[in-house]
Automatic annotation (TrEMBL):
<dbReference type="Pfam" id="PF00334">
    <property type="entry name" value="NDK"/>
</dbReference>
<keyword id="KW-0547">Nucleotide-binding</keyword>
<dbReference type="InterPro" id="IPR034907">
    <property type="entry name" value="NDK-like_dom"/>
</dbReference>
<feature type="binding site">
    <location>
        <position position="85"/>
    </location>
    <ligand>
        <name>ATP</name>
    </ligand>
</feature>
<dbReference type="GO" id="GO:0006241">
    <property type="term" value="P:CTP biosynthetic process"/>
</dbReference>
<dbReference type="InterPro" id="IPR036850">
    <property type="entry name" value="NDK-like_dom_sf"/>
</dbReference>
<feature type="active site" description="Pros-phosphohistidine intermediate">
    <location>
        <position position="115"/>
    </location>
</feature>
<keyword id="KW-0963">Cytoplasm</keyword>
<keyword id="KW-0597">Phosphoprotein</keyword>
<keyword id="KW-0067">ATP-binding</keyword>
<dbReference type="GO" id="GO:0005737">
    <property type="term" value="C:cytoplasm"/>
</dbReference>
<comment type="similarity">
    <text>Belongs to the NDK family.</text>
</comment>
<feature type="domain" description="Nucleoside diphosphate kinase-like">
    <location>
        <begin position="1"/>
        <end position="138"/>
    </location>
</feature>
<feature type="binding site">
    <location>
        <position position="112"/>
    </location>
    <ligand>
        <name>ATP</name>
    </ligand>
</feature>
<keyword id="KW-0479">Metal-binding</keyword>
<keyword id="KW-0808">Transferase</keyword>
<comment type="function">
    <text>Major role in the synthesis of nucleoside triphosphates other than ATP. The ATP gamma phosphate is transferred to the NDP beta phosphate via a ping-pong mechanism, using a phosphorylated active-site intermediate.</text>
</comment>
Amino acid sequence: MERTFIMIKPDGVQRNLAGEVIKRFETKGFTLVGMKFMAVPRELAEKHYDVHKERPFFSSLVDFITSSPVVAMVWEGEGVVSGARTLIGATNPLTAAPGTIRGDFGISIGRNLIHGSDAIETAKTEIALWFGEDELVSWQPAASSWLY
Ligand code: RTP
Ligand code: MG
């Protein structure tokens, strides 16, 4: 089954939106298989955003992600990588559709509340970067036979 890496960024945690975000993923029907509340070491933030290392906003992005705790999660389900990006909405919260997490709760591109892997291959890399195998739980929720 497909998995994706989701992180509630420091602004999402500070604004008490962690429960709201988790609720949206749960009620959609995706399955939580890993979660941890953590301070992000700078080296991990730099690796996570390595693809953006030449961009002008890279160091401020790493400063932001390491500034306050995050909730790191792995969610599972059919089409969860693109499905999660749909729940999250466009990168700029001002243009993200209402009904999406960024569209409902954000204003600024540098404070867009949540990260979601952008492709299946990226998700595999990010999950391996953030979680050990022993931190992920494979399980079958009773509701899945009513979802699929
Ligand atoms: P994310 O990786 O955080 O899920 O966001 P994303 O795919 O929607 O956007 P991406 O292009 O990967 O950019 C990563 C994060 O960098 C910040 N950003 N700032 N100031 C800027 O122009 C700018 N552009 C991007 C955003 O916080 C974005 O989430
Ligand atoms: Mg991205």
